[in-house]
Amino acid sequence: MAHTVFIDGEAGTTGLQIRERLAGRADLEVVSIDPARRKDAASRAELLNGVDAVVLCLPDDAAREAVAMVTSNRVKIVDASTAHRVAPDWAYGFAEMATGQRAAIAGSNRVANPGCYPTGFIGLVRPLVEAGLVPPAFPLTVNAVSGYSGGGKGLIAEFEGADPPAGTADAFRIYGLNLAHKHLPEMAAHTGLAHTPVFAPAVGRFAQGMIVEVPLQLWALPGKPTPADLHVALQAFYAGERFVEVAGGAECAELQETRAGAGGYVAAMDPEALNGTNRMRLFVFGSADGTQARLVAQLDNLGKGASGAAVQNLNLMLGLDEAAGL
Predict the structure, then answer these.
(1) Which residues contact 161 (CB under 8 A, 6 or more apart)?
(2) Contact 119/280 with Cβ under 8 angstroms?
(3) Cα–Cα distance between 118 and 6 in angstroms, integer?
(4) Is the same domain home to 54 and 127?
(5) 150: which DSSP letter?
(6) How many Å from the N-terminal Cα to the C-terminal Cα in the chain?
(7) What pTM was estimated for this model as a whole?
(8) Is residue 323 domain-resident?
(9) Domain check: are 158 and 291 in the same one?
């Protein structure tokens, strides 16, 4: 018998992609609410409590309201909002981030889907903190660029609209200039860091895809690890994983070989390369003298950074094949 799933907020960017990933599966039945009853609290509560699992693709406050409406102890919830990502009674939905995390997700009725930027940052940093290569109190910086779909319908309309004043002609835009981005708490909490990093996010003129980068002054770290030490630690941490892969040393070395372009040097790293997948690839680049490194995560902000992770978590919670639909 198929498990029933309600995607609350299925018309949004993440909700639509989750529905696409669940379409055609014989082990799941996606149910929807009658649009005419969408704002009727009793009808929505009935549906929220009548299915096996709920995926929340809502703003934070709306997600909290939806969770409060679930009174059944058997309903499993995956929340794609920021609302519960550091809540102690919610499992964090990044299965690969720690030994036992997959089991914690599978055994929980409340799972908070990670943010897209934190998935890349945590994926790069947590293994190094656990290995003792990066001290918890070490100051870190994370630079990242995402496709404009990460900003939701408003930003999508702005970038896909006509030229100003109806839309924007911006090719690249930095934001989060108040240094108080909503992803910062989970970045620190789920890496074991004592302080939040300096986070420099940006959006580019492409719909989907993401690059997350953590530069490191290796000479300033207590043990003065080499880029090779970081690479070995990441490879060991993610050995055998299906969705998180560490690029080999030869591939990283090849990417480091810049080639002359018309206007200077051309870097070979495409933020759109993993679009439509639930994969994340990690890279370690080092300076010739081994004193500096650039850690890079490449992922789809709507895949492993949102809808793909939600489906992966849903599969684990329902006892299904973790890779189903992915």
Answers:
(1) 167, 168
(2) yes
(3) 26
(4) no
(5) G
(6) 21
(7) 0.94
(8) no
(9) yes
Q: Are 100 and 132 contained in the same domain?
A: no
Q: H-helix or E-strand containing 30?
A: strand 28-31
Question: Which pLDDT score, from 0 to 100, does residue 46 have?
Answer: 92
Pair 284, 216 in one domain:
yes
DSSP 190: T
pLDDT in tens, 87-138: 999 999 999 999 999 999 999 999 999 999 999 999 999 999 999 999 999 9
Q: Are residues 65 and 186 located together in one domain of the fold?
A: no
Average pLDDT over residues 82-86: 97
- Active-site residue list: 116
Confidence of residue 52 (pLDDT cuts 50, 70, 90): very high
DSSP state of 196: P
> What does the alpha-carbon distance between residue 106 and residue 228 come to, in Å, rounded to a whole number?
34
The two tokens of residue 105 are 């997700």
Structural domain of residue 209, as residue ranges? 116-301
Rg, Å, the chain Cα set: 20
Mark whether 139 and 188 lie in a shared domain: yes
Dihedral angle sign, alpha carbons of residues 305, 50, 66, 85: negative
Residue 258 located in a structural domain: yes
